[in-house]
Design a protein that fits this description.
Distance between the termini: 68 Å
Radius of gyration: 25 Å
Helix content: 10-25%
CATH architecture of the largest domain: Roll
Number of domains: 3
Strand content: 35-45%
Number of helices: 7
CATH topology of the largest domain: DNA Polymerase III, Chain A, domain 2
CATH superfamily of the largest domain: DNA Polymerase III, subunit A, domain 2
Largest sheet: 9 strands, antiparallel
Shape: elongated
Strand order of the largest sheet: 13-10-11-12-25-24-23-17-21
Structural class: alpha+beta
Length: 376
């Protein structure tokens, strides 16, 4: 194998696929990056068995071949190379690869590239093409509601639904909160099939981090137990989580007895300050925040016996019953951080019911949070 490549191109390819490289694994090949030199392009791959990222550089190569190099040392080496053309050459019949730059060189010892997983061949069932910023915004809106632990895989994933009428829905829940986002997508002339898939939240977050231009299109193709995303010269394949996602439509209240309309920035900043001290007495980091209404004023209180007390008042417009309810302040903050609209609705159907945040301009996004019991 032998090719010549600009340092910046080489580094971008390596850093892109490195996102999928396993951080901790007993399988040594998954700590590596796969490189294949074809006649007119270079292929780079990284995987941790859950997600695989492939990056292609169009390039005329001098000699075809394959390499499997340790991701950490490869990335660190290329990052430190000078900004000039880099020559990469493999020693004949050995897994030794030499990087030439100017009058200097460094060699890395690799592994057998034949032992690396191949890009899975996907039996395509359904496919859609959407603006990449749709997916980026929707994942950002719902991902904080996914569970962090993997003991309950369904709750650590994000549900992707495509309805026949052209609704693209993303939903995540850890059973204490639920986030929902919906967008209409354009029919390409073939109509839509109903699709319902649960994908690892980490995979979707990594995909959105690879989106660097708002006007790019992203192709999403589902297969039997995998989903393929194509974004320009980047291909991402992720597994589908098996299991049944909760019926989220039954959880979301259809009506409310109290609606609070507030300035999003004022409410977010008040919640942020109050949550600093929102620790239920005797329980560190419980983040219990008390919300109560006094006419058209919303009061937020956070307290800690050891640290102090926070008291915040903000003006609101209240419709319906007065409230007194406790929530996890961190969950409230997560909900408010991703609402970009100037005003927000906060709906309740009683002091023991979930609180639902939604943009006041009617956009199809909501964040539902269960109240917490407290001796506040």
């Amino acid at each position: 194998m032998k090719f010549v490549c600009e340092k910046d191109q080489l580094l971008k390819a390596i850093q892109t696929v490195q996102r999928a490289v396993a951080a901790k694994t007993t399988i040594s090949t998954l700590n590596c990056i796969y490189i294949e030199a074809k006649e007119d392009h270079l292929i780079f791959r990284g995987t941790d068995s859950e997600i695989m990222i492939q990056y292609i550089i169009p390039l005329k190569v001098e000699r075809e071949g394959k390499a499997l190099l340790p991701a950490r040392y490869l990335a660190d080496l290329v990052k430190k190379l000078p900004n000039i053309e880099i020559v990469v050459e493999q020693k004949e019949k050995e897994h030794i690869y030499i990087f030439y730059y100017g009058n200097s060189k460094t060699q890395l010892i690799g592994m057998n590239p034949e032992e690396y997983p191949e890009l899975p061949s996907l039996e395509k069932e359904d496919s859609i093409i959407i603006p990449s910023y749709f997916l980026e915004n929707m994942v950002r809106q719902v991902s904080s509601a996914a569970a962090l632990d993997t003991l309950r895989p369904v709750f650590s994933g994000i549900l992707i639904e495509i309805k026949a009428q052209g609704d693209l829905n993303l939903v995540a829940t850890d059973t204490h909160r639920l986030a929902y986002s919906s967008h209409k997508i354009t029919d390409n002339g073939d109509g839509f099939s109903d699709i319902s898939l649960i994908l690892p939240s980490r995979s979707l977050i990594e995909i959105t981090r690879l989106i660097d231009e708002e006007n790019k299109l992203i192709s999403i193709t589902s297969g039997f137990n995998q989903v393929l995303f194509e974004l320009g010269n980047i291909t991402i394949i992720t597994r589908v989580i098996e299991g049944k996602f909760p019926n989220y439509e039954q959880v979301i209240p259809k009506n409310y007895t109290t609606r609070i309309k507030a300035n999003t920035k004022l409410l977010r900043e008040a919640v942020d300050r109050a949550t600093l001290l929102a620790q239920e007495q005797g329980k560190y980091f419980a983040n219990v925040l008390k919300l109560s209404s006094q006419g058209n004023v919303l009061v937020l209180e956070g307290r800690s016996q050891e640290i102090g007390l926070a008291y915040e008042e903000i003006p609101v417009y209240l419709e319906g019953e007065q409230i007194e309810v406790n929530f996890n302040g961190r969950y409230l903050l997560d909900a408010l951080k991703i609402i970009e609209e100037e005003e927000v609705y906060f709906d309740l159907t009683g002091n023991l019911s979930p609180g639902v945040f939604r943009p006041a301009d009617g956009k199809k996004y909501l964040y539902l949070i269960l109240p917490v019991r407290s001796n506040y």
